[in-house]
Amino acid sequence: MHDTIEKLLAPTKGILAADSINGIVKRFLNVGLTFTPELDLEYKKMLYATPGIEQFISGTILNDNNIREDIVISNEIVKGIKVDAGLAPFGEGGEEATKGLEGLESRLKEYIGMGAKFAKWRGVVKISDIFPTDAFLNENLDRMIKYAKLCQENGLVPIVEPEILLEGNHTTTRCEQIETKVLQLLFEKLKSGGVNLSNLILKTSMVLPGRESGVKAAPLEVANATLRALKNSVPPEVPGIVFLSGGQTPDEATSNLNEIVKLKADAPWQISFSYERALQNELMEKWAGKVENIEAARAVFLQRLNTVSQARQGKL
Ligand code: 13P
């Protein structure tokens, strides 16, 4: 597990997330394409065969369909797998908890046989005047802890991913409060649940004002609020924190990461990225399902990877 973590957190690289089915369905629709498994496979083959991506990508998160398919991925890229089974309503109020514990251990063993070295479990937290409720947080994080423990027992590095959703009209301050509260509770539970904090990676969201608030925070404000939340909640034994892009534009996700890394000073963890949309939106728009666009699409993809890799080093 140590070796995998070291590879994933290589200083100039980050993780390419490519596991979201809902996400790819939407990205196809945005460029006028209808999702089919065949088109998804064609797209993923194009994506992973982009020459030179291993300079910027340390690992990639696949889903249950793609890991079973014949997609060539460079040996230099560590393979990971999303193992949660999505969201289901929790209570009556509109919160959604992550499911997927049933049969998890046998699936983990199967994925290890397919070459997976790490796994991912995503829990989402919605912010409103009344959300998140304590009952929801307790249940949803308890499930995440069970997943993390099972991964470590089987030799897979768990990525624990609590995502504070961008949707909502909350302020940056409220987002920071919730991010801090969620991460504090998560690490309390990981510790008391016997999960080894040195053998996991935290994937989480940056602290941002809600999308419907009408406010856009400058990178300096995002970086300060995000680093405060992390310093107040993430123990120093945790080797790395990788951000999701969470609906930010590729440029926003890049500049905000750059500012966070620039300001991280003596923060004890590696800070990197594990973006899906912010790495793939531009590529998808250029490609739009046409063979003749592949070269131009890959050029756009490499350009974005290069810029995000610079941001991961705080060099922009
Ligand atoms: P985004 O970067 O698009 O938020 O995705 C991250 C992720 O983990 C997808 O499942």
Question: What can you see in these coordinates?
Answer:
With 316 residues, this protein is α/β, with parallel strands linked by helices. The protein is 45% helix and 17% strand. The strands form two sheets. It has an eight-stranded parallel beta barrel with strand order 1-2-3-6-7-8-9-10, surrounded by six helices. A two-stranded antiparallel sheet has the order 4-5. Helix 7 links the parallel strand 7 (157-164) and strand 8. The site of 1,3-dihydroxyacetonephosphate has 12 residues, from helix 10. 1,3-dihydroxyacetonephosphate is lined by residues 17, 19-20, 23, 122, 244-246, 275-278.
Largest beta sheet: what is the strand line-up?
1-2-3-6-7-8-9-10
C-alpha end-to-end distance: 32 Å
Mean pLDDT: 98
Assess the beta-strand content as a share of residues: 15-25%
What small molecules does the structure contain? Answer: 1,3-dihydroxyacetonephosphate
User: Based on helices, strands and strand pairing, what is the structural class?
Assistant: alpha/beta
Order of helices and strands: HEHHEHEEEHEHEHEHEHEHH
Low-confidence stretches: none
What characteristics describe this protein?
alpha/beta, binds 1,3-dihydroxyacetonephosphate, 316 residues, two-stranded antiparallel sheet, 10 strands, eight-stranded parallel beta barrel
